[in-house]
Amino acid sequence: MDTKKIYHPLCCLSEPVDLKGGVCVSSIQAKANLSPSTVSNYLDTLQRAGLLLSERHGKWTYYRRNEETIRALAEFVKEEL
Predict the structure, then answer these.
(1) pTM of this structure
(2) I need a labelling partner for 6 at 20 to 30 A (CA). Which of 27, 29, 41, 74 fits?
(3) Which CATH architecture is the domain 3-80 placed in?
(4) Cβ contacts of 64 within 8 Å, gap of 6 or more
């Protein structure tokens, strides 16, 4: 049994914070099946583009979509393409 897969989600749940749909990096990494550095680079690029928002809680960083920027981008693409 891989104890890391059991331990990490429990750590994420240990802090009672309102994340409004945020997802921790290790969850993204596990679902994407990519290396931590690759996921980190992608998240950094999306955050610099304004498409993601992040919140840090202790040693964990949680990401969520920036709905306002995504709507503006969708509108721009709709009008310009």
Answers:
(1) 0.66
(2) 41
(3) Orthogonal Bundle (1.10)
(4) 19, 20, 21, 22, 23, 52, 53, 54, 55
Question: Of all helices (H) and strands (E), which one includes residue 2?
Answer: none
Cα–Cα dist 70/9, whole Å = 28
Tokens 């914070």, residue located: 17
> How are strands ordered across the β-sheet holding 23-24?
23-24, 60-65, 52-57
- The set of residues, in sequence order, having a beta carbon less than 8 Å from that of 19 and lying 6+ positions away, is 55, 57, 62, 64
Q: Residues 30, 32, 37, 41: what is their CA dihedral angle, to the nearest 10 degrees?
A: -140
52 residue type, one letter: L
43 within 8 A of 53, measured Cβ to Cβ? no
